[in-house]
């Protein structure tokens, strides 16, 4: 997560998808609230 946040900061581009596996069908739309919730646990 840290690398993704750093890349977003440097490039100014948003994170749109998250890879959860190794194929295109494993790309999921980013749920920012779920990521923040997981980080705060």
From TrEMBL:
Q: Which GO terms describe its molecular function?
A: GTP binding; GTPase activity; signal recognition particle binding
| Entry's localization field | Endomembrane system
Q: Which UniProt keywords apply?
A: GTP-binding, Membrane, Nucleotide-binding
According to the lineage, what is the superkingdom?
Answer: Eukaryota
Q: Which family does it belong to?
A: Belongs to the GTP-binding SRP family.
Protein's name according to its UniProt entry: SRP54-type proteins GTP-binding domain-containing protein
User: What Pfam families does the record tag this protein with?
Assistant: SRP54
A cellular-component GO term for this protein? endoplasmic reticulum membrane
Q: Name one GO biological process term.
A: SRP-dependent cotranslational protein targeting to membrane
What PROSITE patterns does this protein map onto? SRP54 (PS00300)
Tell me the ranges covered by the SRP54-type proteins GTP-binding domain, including all copies.
Answer: 14-27
Q: Give the way it sits in the membrane.
A: Peripheral membrane protein
């Amino acid at each position: 997560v840290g690398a993704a946040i750093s890349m977003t900061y440097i490039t100014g581009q948003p994170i749109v998808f998250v890879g959860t596996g190794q194929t295109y069908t494993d790309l999921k739309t980013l749920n920012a609230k779920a990521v923040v919730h997981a980080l705060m646990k």
